[in-house]
Amino acid sequence: MRILHIDSGETLRGGQLQVLRLLDGLKAEGVEVRLMTAAGSALAHAAEARGIETRNLGWRALRSESRWAELVHCHDAHAHTLAWLASRAPYVVSRRVVFPVKKTWFSAKKYASARLFLCVSQAVADVLRAAGIPGERLAVVYDGVDLPAAMSDRTGSMVALDSADPGKCRALLNQLPLKIDFVTDLPRAFRSARLFLYPTASEGLGSAALLAMAYGVPVIASNTGGLREIIEDCQTGLLAGTTPHEFQQAAGKLESDPALIGRIVQQARALVEQRFTAQRMVRRTIECYRQVLG
Asked: N or C: which end of the chain has fewer CB within 10 A?
């Protein structure tokens, strides 16, 4: 099986980290992979360091490279557009966001051409179904995370993602009368983090929350989108509205109830082991490839 992957992201955000996990896993399963991405991007450097064949992204290059592939896998909206315009091979699209599909002629044509949409959650699939895409062209492929060998000792601070994305609600967290460390290296922070705060205006799934759960770090997240599919309130984490008061209340509830924390840590880790590992994500993706290729 020869799969050409396209991702136009310049930085290593959650989606690009998932691409790297997928490429590593596919190679381990004997699938031939190549990656097209922005020249000199963080994703390109990370992929090359893993021994993954990498090409500079562009529509002319894609037209040539797609001759090699049995299937093209698009990982963002720009990649989807390029594949629609230039790919000589059939293609599938990973959909990670819950934004509505635009009701334009351009969008209608573009979305009609993909063989299958790999939706990161049921919430994402519902958005595409509402846009008129039939269910047989939708598959849910949840994000996966690598299970750490050791869980957090929870002796450290309360942490949140250091992101410039306004949708990640940094302004909300800045209003809390709590000491919060804003971090970019989540695996390192989760080795000792006490709590993980994840407010967001919208969310396809929440791979950062999944990673915290894998480390045994209790998560307080916004009650929105695909986060509801990984966090059951008071069982695998806490869900809160996107207001400072509600996040402060949730943090206080956890900090004052060790039994609740113990239950959440145990059940969240078990859920990740059962449903949200990188290995499970890779194998589900291969199933989708086979579905398209017959």
From this structure: C
Ordered structural domains, the chain, with CATH: 2-144+277-293 (3.40.50.2000), 158-275 (3.40.50.2000)
Could you please report the per-residue DSSP string of 201-270? S--SS-HHHHHHHHTT--EEEES-TTHHHH--BTTTBEEE-SSHHHHHHHHHHHHT-HHHHHHHHHHHHH
Distance CA 231, CA 213 (A): 9
φ and ψ at 91, to 5 degrees? -140, 155
Tokens of 114: 């993909």
Q: From the CB of residue 71, how many other CB atoms can be counted at a distance below 10 Å?
A: 22
> pTM for this one?
0.93
List pLDDT tens digits, range 190-242: 999 999 999 998 999 999 999 999 999 999 999 999 999 999 999 999 999 98
Q: Which residues pair with 36 in a beta bridge?
A: 6, 55
